[in-house]
Design brief:
108 residues, 71% helix, 0% strand, CipC protein, DUF3759
């Protein structure tokens, strides 16, 4: 995997969130880490199927969409509130921005 390996903190958070019982006991930081991992996986699959996006900005939009969808799904299934949902989305997008800014991704 290009950004987050299967033994990264994000991967561990992903496993914890996905396998957690259906209760509102998950922190927004944990959900954000899981969302950024899920988004990175989905983005790499998207690129494998469709090729690289036209620009770095578009790639970041795609990643934000993938992470937002994951957060929405987890919030709905685990019973979290709106504030945790928004914090998790913001934190996940920040993690993805930090990682993609440090990546050697060409700006087409």
């Amino acid at each position: 995997m290009g950004w987050f390996s299967d033994d990264s903190d994000e991967a561990t958070a992903y496993d914890t969130v996905v396998n957690a019982p259906h209760k509102a006991e998950l922190s927004h930081e944990l959900i954000a880490a899981a969302a950024s991992y899920e988004a990175a996986k989905a983005y790499e699959n998207h690129c494998a199927e469709n090729g690289q996006p036209q620009s770095h900005a578009f790639a970041k939009e795609v990643l934000a969409g993938f992470s937002g969808a994951f957060v929405d799904r987890i919030v709905e299934t685990k019973g979290l509130d709106f504030i945790d949902k928004e914090k998790a989305k913001h934190h996940a997008n920040q993690q993805l921005s930090d990682v993609s800014a440090n990546d050697d991704y060409p700006d087409y």
